[in-house]
Amino acid sequence: MTTLRAEAGMSDRVLEEIAALKDDDWALREDAATLLGEFGDPRAVAPLVETLRDDDRAVRDAATGALRKIGPSAVPALIAALQDPNGNVQEIAVAVLKDLPDPRAVDPLIGCLASRNWIVRMHAAKGLGVLGDARAIAPLVSRLTDEVKAVRVDATDALVRIGRPALDSLLAALRHDAWILRLHACEALGKIGAEEAVEPLCRAMLQDRDTAVRQDAAKALGGIRSPAALDAVTAALRDLDVRPFAVEALGRLTDPRAVGTLIDVVTGKGRPDNVRKAQVCGSESVEMDVDEMEVQIFAIGGLAELGDDRAIEPLIRALKDTRLRAAAAAALGTMGLRVAAPLLAAMKTETDSNILFHARAIMSAVGWRPAATMKEGR
């Protein structure tokens, strides 16, 4: 009997708060919406959806939070609200649906990808990524050419979350006429990390007519980390527009065969003749390879990631180059105590205080400590 009275009391309280959603005082309406979310009673769904039209943003936000808390029971009403003529209601409904991964929302969210409202399209793409349903693949691929970048980004992320079922469509997109579609396809393929994408991405990196696509293909190959891409990525070093991205990818391929090439980049061997140059500040006669400096820093990072002993001596020598010193010191600091002996040997005759400062920082980073009997400066 007590339980029945409690249920009746709660029922009355739900009805009271539903009625309060129409109160003239916005603060009372906000409190009512918040309480209805805590009650979780499905009877509040329709009134809360109606409250999404409220003139006060705080009330709309409270109703939105309440619908999220009520959860699956709110899905049918939220799906219906996607057709509401009020743009605010559409945006809120799709935003809540993306956070309630319910299979009933797949087809309605696919429909939202064609909305004229970019916010609706963006939330729909996010929601479809969470749901991971293969039916969304083709509509999401079509949104990779959306005029709004946020929609393209969320469509790309959604395809990544769907994963391998999207591979065929993304690989086909690499051959599409629209460069922006090819670019986002490269990005998605790199994040999915499928070995089947390596050869098509190598082809795009070396042959695509658009610079940004070639660059993104190189980044994608670095993301996949397949040694099968080594030859193509090495060949891409000749493309000045792709060179920095190719060097960065080389360091991520986890292939020791890349070490020699990266060392050559750091030491300046095989440097292209047509790199962009700029005058060094304070000097009219000295020029610096601006683009190649960035490439060398990427190569140093790659050597640090590969962690091969062959890189230690070239990195120590790079400490003498003011442009590369900080990057070389950071790389050596990740390579452990094995750098201590060669670094100590190199510093015995060094007089540059800045180089010595970085050398001490490296020794500290790798955990080296002088023996108790050693005197300072020896």
Mind explaining what this structure looks like?
This protein has 378 residues and is mostly helical. The protein has helices at 2-20, 26-39, 45-51, 57-70, 75-81, 87-98, 106-112, 118-131, 137-142, 149-162, 167-173, 179-192, 198-207, 211-224, 230-235, 243-252, 258-267, 290-306, 312-318, 325-332, 340-347, 353-365, and strands at 277-279, 287-289. Residues 1-6 and 280-286 have low confidence and may be disordered. It has 22 helices and two strands. Among the domains are: 1-100, Leucine-rich Repeat Variant (Alpha Horseshoe); 256-378, no CATH class.
Notable features of this structure?
2 strands; Leucine-rich Repeat Variant; mainly alpha; two-stranded antiparallel sheet; 63% helix
Strand content: under 5%
Structural class: mainly alpha
- Radius of gyration over alpha carbons? 30 Å
Q: Biggest sheet: strands side by side, in what order?
A: 1-2
- Assembly type of the shown chains? single chain
Order of helices and strands: HHHHHHHHHHHHHHHHHEEHHHHH
Q: Considering DSSP H and I runs of 4 or more, what fraction of the residues is helical? A: 55-70%
Put simply, the count of helices is 22
Summarize it.
With 378 residues, the chain is mostly helical. Helix content is 63%, strand content 2%.
